[in-house]
Specification:
Helix content: 55-70%
Distance between the termini: 133 Å
CATH class of one domain: Alpha Beta
Strand content: 5-15%
Radius of gyration: 46 Å
Strand order of the largest sheet: 2-1-3-4
Shape: rod-shaped
Number of helices: 6
Number of strands: 4
Length: about 190
């Protein structure tokens, strides 16, 4: 051999290391690693799993109390709205009767028609102002059916009482109002 060695380009490169293939984990192994990390993290919390279950129970209890409170609020609100609607209806009815007193005529006709067919010569008890109006607007019916008008200041305007020998119909404002309230499952008086 001689005193020199032949230089080649490959000799500048660092020697190559042999890298062995690293096996990749399967989907099942990844899921197991995830579950193990989750359990370790949950156990590291103060109180561990027991506290988590206790917290879930407390949340359920709070949700139940909230649901009960919301139902009670809905019921209270519904009752208040019904009371308000009834008060508005009462005031509107009073105002309508004041402005249009002839609204008593359908009330009288309905009351008389509700009598049994054999009823003869009904007596109509009306407020004096309503009686004057009925005399002027229903004169033909009064004469034809032999209805007798009786003025009664105890009957509020807009209502009447119809009496025969065998029956009576109370169509006063108060009794009609009470029937409306009973149909709605409520109570109250026409006059406060």
């Amino acid at each position: 051999m001689s005193a020199y060695q032949r230089w080649e380009l490959n000799s500048l490169a660092e020697p190559k290391e042999v890298v062995s293939a690293v096996p990749l984990p399967t989907a099942e192994e990844v899921e197991n690693i995830h579950q193990q990390a989750y359990q370790e993290g949950f156990a590291a919390l103060p109180g561990g799993q027991g506290q988590g279950r206790c917290g879930t129970g407390a949340v359920a209890l709070l949700m139940s109390a909230l649901d009960k409170a919301l139902n009670q609020f809905d019921e209270t609100l519904s009752n208040e709205l019904l009371s308000l609607a009834l008060e508005v209806a009462k005031q509107m009815l009073r105002e309508a009767l004041r402005v249009r007193p002839e609204l008593v005529l359908p009330v009288i006709r309905e009351a008389v028609n509700s009598l049994p067919p054999a009823s003869q010569h009904p007596h109509l008890k009306l407020h004096p102002e309503d009686a004057a109006l009925v005399r002027s607007l229903m004169a033909d019916e009064l004469n034809h059916f032999h209805w007798k008008l009786i003025e009664d200041s105890r009957v509020e305007r807009g209502g009447c009482r119809v009496e025969t020998a065998n029956s009576e119909v109370d169509a006063t404002m108060e009794s009609r109002w009470k029937r409306i309230l009973a149909a709605l499952g409520s109570e109250g008086a026409w006059l406060e």
